[in-house]
Write a structure and sequence with these properties.
single chain; alpha+beta; two-stranded antiparallel sheet; 12 helices; rod-shaped
């Protein structure tokens, strides 16, 4: 039977006479070589089966090695094979694992949902959003309606929180924008106010400067007027003579007096040229004229004040005045200015018979005061202190306030 089946399987047919089927058409014949090949295969199968029957069965026997102790008995325990699980057991195990995993997932979902509720209550949207994304991947596997309901409610709450936070953000942005606009408005107002104040201050400063300029101009004008008036006054002092000036001149001529003398430090010459002549120390002090090297000291000035001679320029009849010599010895570079005797004829000029700082002197502006001068003593040279002419040698001519440089003949060639 099997043989026939194999023949059918390989498309082989029996070599017996051709059978004629019911429809009267004979079956095609099969070549003989195919039957021979099939017989050979059949023979090989038979041989292989015989070999299997003759195989040794010693594979299941146990070779127990000899033991020293023949009395020891060993009990052979056959190998126990594990029971092969049934499909029902596998299914039950699978369902159990799935139930356990579902329970773990539900517990985790509950924990995360509870944490979400807390975060939503605390309005921590970003953290809640991250946890919500994590739950969303798990919730599709959870069938518990309570958990899914809680998830839906929390999702709604989270959406509401997002809307609230977005609304608050927009409100905050609007407030911030409003605040910035308000600050900008205040800033503009402040800048405008500062600009207005600055313009006002500039205008006030301009007015103040103009007023100051006007004041200075007025002061300069007044000063110029005062200086002009003073200059005219000084010129008047340098021009106006005594009523009987010719008599004074006669006395001077009779005694051969053509020049008077004034000693000063060489460093004072530029100032004398700048200011147009010699001034009394009182006038210089009053009019802020600096004397580079002043000759008189504090004591001599106090004596001048005592005798009312502080506003006079002191001239001598001699060109070797003892005080000039004393200043040379102390280190001063003394020069002798040669002055026309015409200054003795000026209205305000006074005469002293000896040094006017001496308490025994006599001074005045009358002709008799000039005649009191010992002209012979004034013309002597290098009179000794012990000489009777020592004091008369120092007789003085005192010119009121100012001696114009027009009277100084050697100002450029002293």
């Amino acid at each position: 039977m099997i043989f026939k089946w194999l023949k059918k399987l390989f498309g082989l047919y029996d070599s017996s006479p051709t059978e004629i089927p019911a429809n009267g058409e004979p079956k095609p014949s099969v070549p003989k070589s195919l039957y021979d090949e099939l017989d050979k295969r059949k023979e090989r199968v038979k041989q292989n089966r015989d070999k299997l029957k003759q195989s040794s069965t010693d594979w299941y026997s146990l070779n127990i090695p000899p033991q020293k102790d023949e009395l020891q008995t060993r009990v052979f325990s056959p190998h126990k094979f594990e029971n092969t699980p049934s499909l029902q057991a596998l299914k039950d195990e699978r369902l159990r694992k799935e139930a356990h995993e579902l329970k773990v997932r539900e517990e985790k979902a509950k924990s995360l949902l509870n944490k979400l509720e807390i975060l939503i209550t605390q309005r921590k949207f970003q953290e809640a959003k991250q946890i919500m994304d994590e739950i969303t991947h798990e919730i599709v596997r959870i069938k518990d309606s309570v958990i899914r309901k809680q998830y839906t409610d929390i999702q709604t709450s989270l959406s509401e929180l997002e809307r609230e936070l977005e609304h608050e953000r927009l409100v905050k942005l609007a407030e911030e924008q409003k605040r910035k606009e308000e600050e900008e408005r205040k800033k503009r107002e402040k800048e405008e106010k500062e600009r207005a104040e600055n313009e006002k201050r500039i205008a006030e400063e301009r007015i103040r400067r103009q007023q100051e300029a006007n004041r200075l101009a007025e002061e300069a004008r007044k000063k110029e007027q005062v200086e002009l008036a003073e200059k005219e006054r000084l010129e008047g002092l340098s021009i106006e003579r005594k009523e009987n000036w010719s008599e004074f001149k006669q006395v001077l001529d009779n005694n051969g007096i053509q020049y008077l003398y004034h000693f000063t430090d060489k460093r004072n010459i530029p100032s004398i040229k700048l200011h147009g002549g010699l001034y009394s120390w009182h006038y210089c002090k009053k009019n802020n004229i600096t004397i580079p090297c002043q000759g008189g000291d504090y004591d001599s000035q106090e004596l001048d004040k005592k005798y009312g001679l502080e506003d006079y320029v002191r001239l001598s009849f001699c060109n070797d005045h003892p005080m000039a010599y004393r200043l040379q010895q102390s280190g001063s570079d003394i020069v002798i200015l040669k002055i026309k005797a015409d200054v003795a004829l000026l209205k305000g000029t006074l005469f002293s018979d000896i040094n006017a700082a001496d308490k025994l002197h006599t001074h005045g502006g009358e002709l008799e005061d000039l005649e009191r001068v010992n002209f012979n003593a004034t013309q002597r040279k290098y009179v000794s202190r012990n000489d009777a002419d020592f004091k008369p040698h120092q007789a003085e001519v005192m010119v009121k306030t100012f001696v114009s440089k027009e009277y100084i003949v050697n100002l450029d060639n002293f």
